[in-house]
Amino acid sequence: GTQIRSIKDEYLVPMGIMQNRVKAVIGKHGLEDASAEVSSLVCHAVHERLKNLLEKLAVVAQQRSDLLIKT
Amino acid sequence: KTNQGSGDQTTQLLSRPRLQELVREVDPTVQLDEEVEEMLLQLADDFIDTTLNAACSLAKHRHAPTVELKDVQLHLERQWNMWIPGFGNDELRP
After folding, report:
1. Sequential pLDDT tens for chain B (94 residues)
2. Which pick of A7, B28, B38, B72 has the fewest CB atoms within 10 Å?
3. CB–CB contact B69 A55 (8 Å)
4. What are phi and psi of B62, to 5 degrees?
5. Would you call A32 helix, strand, or coil by DSSP?
6. Model ipTM value
7. Between helices A15-28 and A36-70, what is the axis angle to 10°?
8. How far is the C-alpha of B11 from the C-alpha of A6, rounded, in Å?
9. How far apart, in Å, do the first and last CA atoms of chain B sit?
């Protein structure tokens, strides 16, 4: 079917490295290899998580330097 | 540190230059200390490992032979309240 992707398909972690990690973890659990989409989803998720963290860090750092200026 | 993390796989998933690129995307004025960078790389690694391990447990719980998108999606939603669009069947969403 048609797929609409609203996120650009540019990965934060190279797909090859991610697929190796997925394979290793899945193998450790005694499961069969998963589809490439699983690796792709995890890539997007870690991107999202880091972006979120960085945004928060930027706000906190700004606030800290504002306080320094005031005192 | 528990044995659950990356353990024997020492390859770092996320590279420092790629992280710096992301930082510039988020806020070009932000500069990260080296220690902060190191921590973020570790955090990314841990996030990936925990997500994958949780997805495996969920797949095993439903007696499936392998991990499917829905296992990862369920963990991301429950743990992080995160929904990544464009995977699987978005129409199933309420």
Report:
1. 444 444 444 567 899 999 999 999 998 988 899 999 999 999 999 999 999 999 999 999 999 999 999 999 999 999 999 999 988 866 655 5
2. B28
3. no
4. -95, 20
5. strand
6. 0.84
7. 110
8. 30
9. 39
pLDDT of chain A, 71 residues: tens digit per residue: 666 655 555 788 999 999 999 999 999 999 999 999 999 999 999 999 999 999 999 999 889 888 888 77
The two three-digit tokens of residue B15, written as one number: 């590279």
By C-alpha distance, which of A64, A39, A5 is closest to B69? A39
Q: Which residue is listed with tokens 């309240």?
A: B81
Q: Which residues of B touch A (CB under 8 A)?
A: 6, 9, 11, 13-14, 18-19, 22-23, 25-27, 30, 36, 40, 43-44, 47-49, 51-53, 55-57, 59-60, 64-69, 72-73, 76, 80, 82, 84-88
Q: Which residue has the tokens 């997007």?
A: A44
What is the CA B78 to chain-centroid distance, rounded? Answer: 14
- Tell me which residue of A55, A50, A18, A54 sits closest to A34, measured CA to CA: A18
